[in-house]
Amino acid sequence: MPWPKINFPEKNPPLVTERLELKWPELIDAKELFEMRSDSNFTKFLARYPMKDISEAEDYIQNIHDGFKTEKGLSWKICQKGSYILIGCIGF
Predict the structure, then answer these.
(1) For residue range 44-79, what is the model confidence (pLDDT) as tens digits?
(2) pTM for this structure?
(3) 3-state class (DSSP) for residue 82
(4) Domain annotation covers residue 9
(5) By the 8 A CB rule, do 76 and 25 touch?
(6) Which residue range(s) make up the domain with 74?
(7) Measured over all CA atoms, what is the biggest interatomic distance in the chain, rounded to whole angstroms?
(8) Where is 91: in which H helix or E strand?
């Protein structure tokens, strides 16, 4: 049975809660993403190996963009409300 068609928005919409903002990740976020994903204590809960190089973080962000363009996934960076500092990522 094929997956149902998802109606993707033209632009990845920001999502806002009382404490958090979910925003479109950009390549400028690669340093913060690398710092997070290169920590073995962090990645042991992700079933992923720690990143070894910042280029892996850049590739990860590019994959998020490519997945959106091809309508295969939606992802966001998680920030505290009013901040652009990445504290996590979420997607489907």
Answers:
(1) 888 889 999 999 999 999 999 999 999 888 899 999
(2) 0.85
(3) coil
(4) no
(5) yes
(6) 15-91
(7) 43
(8) strand 88-91
